[in-house]
Specification:
alpha/beta, 7-stranded parallel β-sheet, 257 residues
C-alpha cells in the first residue's frame, strides 16, 4: 500500500492577534492552511488565536514582530526559518499577508513629522523591507496580499497621511507582481472599507453615530465586519483565484458608490 504525503500550505499573517489579521488567520486555517501569525505586544491574544487554529486541526505558531522596525527584519527572517524547521521540518512558506498596522487621524495641518514617520515605517517601509527579507523563504508559486484601505479611493478629512501610505502600498503591489511574476508569485491588494474592529480606537464599532453614517453610505446597508475581510483574503489566495494578479480589490460592501 502506498501512502501519499501532502506538504501543507503555510501562511504568514502579520498582526494576527486581533481584528482583520485574526480573522484572516482563522479563515486560512479553515481552508486547510497552517499559519504563522505575528504580534507586536499582545502575546496572550496571539496565543489564543494559535489555540483556536489548533482546535481546527491545523498547526500554528505566533512570533513577535514590530513591523515598524525594519532593522529587526533580518533577525526575524532567521527566527522564522528556524521556527518553520522546528514545526514543519522545512524552511519555506507559501503565503504572506502584510496586514499589521495602526491608524492615525489628524488633519493635514495637524499631522506631525513623528506621526508621519511612524506611518511610513509601519505601512510602507515595513511592507517593502519585510517582504524583501522574507522572499528567500517563500516558495515559488506563492501568494502575497498587501492590506490597503478604501481611503485610497474616497477621501475623508483627517486621513491624508495614512491614506497616502496605503496608496504607496498599492503602487508597490503592482511592482511586486511584475518583479515576482517569473517566480509564479501573485501579489494583490485588498482594500477594506470601514470595519467594526478596535482599529483606530474602535470608532466604527463603538460610535453609534459614525456606525450609522457608514451604514447609510454603504450599498449593502451596514458596516463591515472582520470576517468579511478574512474570508475574502482566504479566498483570494486559494487555488480558485490563481489568475488574479496585480489587482486592487476593494472589500467595502459598496461604500460611497
Amino acid at each position: 500500500m502506498t501512502t501519499t504525503t501532502t506538504t501543507p500550505s503555510i501562511a504568514l499573517v502579520t498582526g494576527g492577534s486581533r481584528g482583520l489579521g485574526k480573522s484572516t488567520a482563522l479563515h486560512l486555517a479553515q481552508q486547510g492552511h497552517e499559519v504563522v501569525l505575528t504580534y507586536k505586544s499582545q502575546k496572550a491574544e496571539a496565543d489564543a488565536v494559535v489555540a483556536q487554529i489548533q482546535a481546527l486541526g491545523r498547526k500554528a505558531l505566533a512570533l513577535q514582530l514590530d513591523v515598524a522596525d525594519s532593522a529587526s527584519f533580518a533577525a526575524f527572517a532567521t527566527q522564522l526559518r528556524h521556527s518553520l524547521q522546528a514545526q514543519w521540518d522545512r524552511e519555506t512558506f507559501n503565503i504572506l499577508v502584510n496586514n499589521a498596522g495602526a491608524g492615525a487621524h489628524a488633519s493635514l495641518m495637524e499631522t506631525t513629522t513623528d506621526q508621519f514617520d511612524r506611518l511610513v515605517n509601519m505601512h510602507f517601509k515595513g511592507v517593502f523591507f519585510l517582504t524583501q527579507a522574507l522572499l528567500p523563504l517563500m516558495l515559488d508559486g506563492g501568494r502575497i496580499v498587501n492590506v490597503s484601505s478604501g481611503l485610497t479611493r474616497f477621501a475623508l478629512p483627517g486621513y491624508s497621511a495614512y491614506a497616502a501610505m496605503k496608496g504607496a502600498v498599492e503602487v508597490l503591489t503592482r511592482y511586486m507582481a511584475k518583479e515576482l511574476g517569473p517566480r509564479g508569485i501573485a501579489v494583490n491588494t485588498v482594500a477594506p472599507g470601514a470595519i467594526a474592529t478596535d482599529f483606530g480606537g474602535g470608532a466604527v464599532r463603538d460610535n453609534a453615530q459614525l456606525n450609522a453614517f457608514v451604514a447609510s453610505q454603504t450599498a449593502l446597508g451596514r458596516v463591515g465586519e472582520a470576517d468579511d475581510i478574512g474570508a475574502m483574503v482566504a479566498s483570494l489566495v486559494g487555488c480558485g483565484n490563481r489568475w488574479i494578479n496585480a489587482q486592487r480589490i476593494e472589500v467595502s460592501g459598496g461604500m460611497f458608490v
